[in-house]
Task: inverse folding
């Protein structure tokens, strides 16, 4: 029996039954903490306690604390909106980028236009397919690499999927400078790899690096051809700085992905905490 053959009024029961039977959840988001590695192009994360326990007391002896945070929307694990990039002054939908951002927020292509997502996720563990624990600095993941990974895993990528590309660079996350990789370069897909992803009609693509794509040594984010192909040309949102090591170590290449970002009106991106869900046992 497939979901399609189950009466529509009972499909919710099937989902609840699957959850009740037991699921394992992989957290693909990085903790937000002061000093975490990030692109130097965005405001950093900051957290403080403006009100602490003991600053004041209520009549019954209770005290309360609160928080203040500030951060750019492209810091930590985050998702890029289509309005994040423009080419020759135009957004993905052809809108004039300058006009679309008038008033302090985008009127088109902003992250609030992206609905929450629950769908099929595929992890492409490229280092495992190539027989290495992690890719070398500045290594460009090619269509041939992606084909080899799909063949090894038996996980074809299709329309509507969320494809997550592991480079192994996430192992460096606790070393800020190494993970940013300005001096060494960072592995990732290049323009050809991005076109391979786009040709499969995916909804969202993600990776375990800050920039998603391959960065040459010493160049930083000077050129981002994969962003142009995926965001500007094909309207495919990008998730960056993902935690993919646990998923790869468990050999989980196919899963249900739950993705809900902050619904920030007019923003070019948002923090996000993706979850990969599989049947336990």
Result:
């Amino acid at each position: 029996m497939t979901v399609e053959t189950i009466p529509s009024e009972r499909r919710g029961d099937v989902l609840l039954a699957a959850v009740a039977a037991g699921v394992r959840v992989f957290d693909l988001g990085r903790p937000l903490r002061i000093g975490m590695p990030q692109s130097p192009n965005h405001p950093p994360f900051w957290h403080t306690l403006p009100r602490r326990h003991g600053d004041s007391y209520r009549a019954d002896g209770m005290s309360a604390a609160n928080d203040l945070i500030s951060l750019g929307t492209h810091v930590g694990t985050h998702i890029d909106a289509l309005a994040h990039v423009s080419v020759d002054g135009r957004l993905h939908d052809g809108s004039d980028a300058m006009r679309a951002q008038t008033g302090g927020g985008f009127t088109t292509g902003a992250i609030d236009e992206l609905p929450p997502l629950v769908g099929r996720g595929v992890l492409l563990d490229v280092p495992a397919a190539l027989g290495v624990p992690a890719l070398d600095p500045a290594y460009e993941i090619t269509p041939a690499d992606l084909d080899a990974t799909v063949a090894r895993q038996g996980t074809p990528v299709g329309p509507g999927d969320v494809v997550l590309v592991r480079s192994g660079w996430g192992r460096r996350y606790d070393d800020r400078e190494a993970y940013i990789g300005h001096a060494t370069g960072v592995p990732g897909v290049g323009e050809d790899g991005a076109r391979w992803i786009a040709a499969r009609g995916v909804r969202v693509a993600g990776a375990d690096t800050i920039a998603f794509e391959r960065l040459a040594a010493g160049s930083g984010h000077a050129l981002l051809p994969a962003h142009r192909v995926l965001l500007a040309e094909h309207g495919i949102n990008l998730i960056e700085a993902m935690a993919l090591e646990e998923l790869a170590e468990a050999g989980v290449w196919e899963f249900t992905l739950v993705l809900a970002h902050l619904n920030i009106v007019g923003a070019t991106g948002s923090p996000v905490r993706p979850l990969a869900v599989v049947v336990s046992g």
